[in-house]
Amino acid sequence: MKYIKILLILGVIVSLTFSGCVMHEKKLPAIEVCFDHYIAGNKHILKIEYAKATLISKNKAPTLYPWYNTPMTGIILYAYDMSGVKSMKELGLRVTPSTYLPLTKQGKIIAYIGFKSPKSVPKKGDRMLVVIQVLKDGRELAEAHTNIVWDINWSY
User: Where would I find the H helices in 23-139?
Assistant: First the structure.
């Protein structure tokens, strides 16, 4: 009888823990980019299939690199917020952190570009320029870009 009471108490504690404490994960805003990267001979070939605004779980969030600290050999993805940009100087202030992939990664690739803070997330209707570069020792071997319109309302 004593063991049954202990098991009942444990069962109640476990059920309360899982029913009351399981929280829905907050999704993070990101740009999803699907692209092909192949090496033919010594030439790197990039082709963007699509780029779109999306919400992702934390476990899909990329490691973010500030533009000045991005590895200079690899596949680098980033985006510019083009809304209201009037000069190249202003454009440089509106760049996302970079996402890095190894140079050897080939085939169809899906990667995510994140934002450095909730304040830097675009507003619905903002235009973004998505850029992918293949760099080796800081030298550009290939580049592709596309435009998207941010179509998600997101708040922190």
Answer: 88-93
Q: How far is Cα of residue 151 from the mean position of the Cα atoms in its chain? A: 16
d(CA 132, CA 139): 13
What is the tens place of the pLDDT at every residue in 114-129? 999 898 899 999 999 9
Contacts 24+ apart (CB under 8 A), 56-60: 56/27, 56/28, 56/30, 56/32, 56/112, 57/25, 57/27, 57/28, 58/25, 58/28, 60/30, 60/112
Neighbours of 48 (CB within 10 A): 16
Task: Return the bridge partners of 30, or none.
Answer: 54
Q: Could you tell me the residue range of the domain that residue 100 belongs to?
A: 28-149
Question: Which sign does the torsion angle of CA 35, 39, 40, 42 carry?
Answer: positive
Letter for the amino acid at 11? Answer: G
- Give pTM, 2 decimals: 0.80
Tell me the C-alpha to C-alpha distance, in Å, between residue 128 and each of 3, 24, 111.
63, 29, 16
pLDDT in tens, 62-100: 989 987 888 899 999 999 988 877 776 666 667 899 999
The CATH code of the domain that includes 41 is: 2.60.40
